[in-house]
Backbone:
């Protein structure tokens, strides 16, 4: 079976870089897949897409160097199964509040006897290989999002759950869980303390840590802190930022040019 890129990097103590798709487009996913990332996540929780678009996006990603992953909309057996069968090689699950939540997520992601995932990896064979069944329990990546007060309170027990590969941080919801607005100072205060708590719990149990990074400065600091997997913004944010930069540059250049040429 095709090896899981993020698991390989974690074993080799290398930081993995991820892209993020919130635009429901196979073409956008394909472009992101050629962006140099180790993996690209198709976001069904907050992205403007759902299952049919996600499946086309996973197919597009499969033809790029980036490993296809998903963030599911909820901790649902059906959705986790469907997206794994569609070729996702990793699943990020939001709002994991407890050990029971984490166990349910793992159960949906693993074939018996380690879980109760139903057999039928239609596209899994195409991306993973003909021996998909024999390697899926080992290669498929499961990351639980810690982003609620209860999740923070139980983070050490969640990190200890067998079959869970790691913890993933959504900084906006983690800020809300701490009674803060999104986008707070991440270098000090309760947000920084929460990050340290999550990292310590994951390390204690030998698990991977990932985080969504809304800026390059944030990503650089999180790499320094020791996160194993950094997701660098998303496609919609890139499009908006590049558009604003180009428009601002051309508006400024147009004013300067008019003065210089007399037009």
Residues:
């Amino acid at each position: 079976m095709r090896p899981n890129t993020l698991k390989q990097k974690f074993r080799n103590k290398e930081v993995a870089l991820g892209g993020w798709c919130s635009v429901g487009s196979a073409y956008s996913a394909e472009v992101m897949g050629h962006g140099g990332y180790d993996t690209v996540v198709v976001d069904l929780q907050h992205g403007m897409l759902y299952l049919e678009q996600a499946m086309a996006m996973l197919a597009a990603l499969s033809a790029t160097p980036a490993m296809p992953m998903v963030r599911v909309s909820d901790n649902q057996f059906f959705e986790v199964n469907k997206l794994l069968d569609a070729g996702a090689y990793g699943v990020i699950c939001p709002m994991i509040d407890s050990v029971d939540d984490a166990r349910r997520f793992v159960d949906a992601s693993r074939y018996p006897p380690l879980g109760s995932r139903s057999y039928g990896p239609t596209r899994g064979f195409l991306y993973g290989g003909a021996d998909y069944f024999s390697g899926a329990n080992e290669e498929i990546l499961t990351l639980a999002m810690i982003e609620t007060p209860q999740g923070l309170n139980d983070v050490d027990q969640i990190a200890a759950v067998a079959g869970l590969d790691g913890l993933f941080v959504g900084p906006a919801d983690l800020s809300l869980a701490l009674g803060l607005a999104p986008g707070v100072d991440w270098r000090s205060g309760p947000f920084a303390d929460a990050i340290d708590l999550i990292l310590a719990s994951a390390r204690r149990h030998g698990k991977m840590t990932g985080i969504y990074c809304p800026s390059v400065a944030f990503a650089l600091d999180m790499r320094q802190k020791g996160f194993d997997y950094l997701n660098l913004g998303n496609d919609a944010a890139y499009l908006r930022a590049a558009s604003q930069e180009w428009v601002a540059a051309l508006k400024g250049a147009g004013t300067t040019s008019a003065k210089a040429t007399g037009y």
Residues 5-232 form a domain with the TIM Barrel fold (CATH 3.20.20.60). Residues 256-263 have pLDDT under 50 and may be disordered. The chain has two domains: 5-232, 237-263. The first strand starts at residue 16 and ends at 21.
